[in-house]
Amino acid sequence: MELILNTVRKVDNDQTKEFAFGDTKSLEENLAIAFLNPTNMKELNLKNEEYLNIRNDEGSIVVKALEDEDVPEGSILLPVSIWANQLTKVEDDELFFKNIKVNVKATDEAVTKYEDIISKIRGV
């Protein structure tokens, strides 16, 4: 299913706070999440806190899906984080972090690990 991704800053999911006061597990629990409208959750046969694969030409991640009635249908919201950055892009020296087309599907895969993203970035 194609949705429009927007990154957001939510007070409860602030990356700086999580990194300063948490650990890797805390980062994954609080930032490797996606907010979806209940209608889209139903269309994807997803229940709250099940896993969602999100991909586009820039990358692919697995995060935990959370139902949120305030999210418009056809949209998906990700907290600004290392996970969201795997799907954003730079084009002509401009960063795109809003209105990004992504494909999503339910999955049994585990959340993409923080260490795996860091290794990918470092080319290890």
Kindly describe this structure:
The chain is α+β, with helices and mostly antiparallel strands and 124 residues long. It has a single domain (2-117), classed as Barwin-like endoglucanases (Beta Barrel), CATH 2.40.40. Helix content is 27%, strand content 35%. The chain has helices spanning 15-21, 24-31, 38-43, 82-85, 114-122, and strands spanning 2-8, 33-36, 51-55, 60-67, 75-79, 89-91, 94-96, 100-107. The chain has a six-stranded mixed beta barrel with strand order 1-5-2-4-3-8. A two-stranded antiparallel ribbon has the order 6-7. A hairpin with a 2-residue loop joins strand 6 and strand 7. The termini are far apart. The mean pLDDT is 90.
What keywords describe this structure?
single chain; 124 residues; Barwin-like endoglucanases; two-stranded antiparallel ribbon; 5 helices
Provide a compact summary of the structure.
This protein has helices spanning 15-21, 24-31, 38-43, 82-85, 114-122; strands spanning 2-8, 33-36, 51-55, 60-67, 75-79, 89-91, 94-96, 100-107. The protein has 124 residues and is α+β, with helices and mostly antiparallel strands.
Distance, first to last CA: 32 Å
Order of helices and strands: EHHEHEEEHEEEH
The percent range for strand residues is: 25-35%
Number of strands: 8
Q: Globular, elongated, flat, extended or rod-shaped: what is the shape? A: globular
Report low-confidence residues grouped into runs of 5 or more: none
Largest sheet: 6 strands, mixed, barrel
Number of domains: 1
What count of helical segments does DSSP give?
Answer: 5
The level of helicity is: 25-40%
Mean pLDDT: 90
- Lateral arrangement of strands in the main beta sheet: 1-5-2-4-3-8
The CATH topology annotation reads as Barwin-like endoglucanases
> In the CATH classification, which architecture applies?
Beta Barrel
Question: Radius of gyration from the CA trace?
Answer: 14 Å
CATH class division: Mainly Beta
- Please state the structural category: alpha+beta
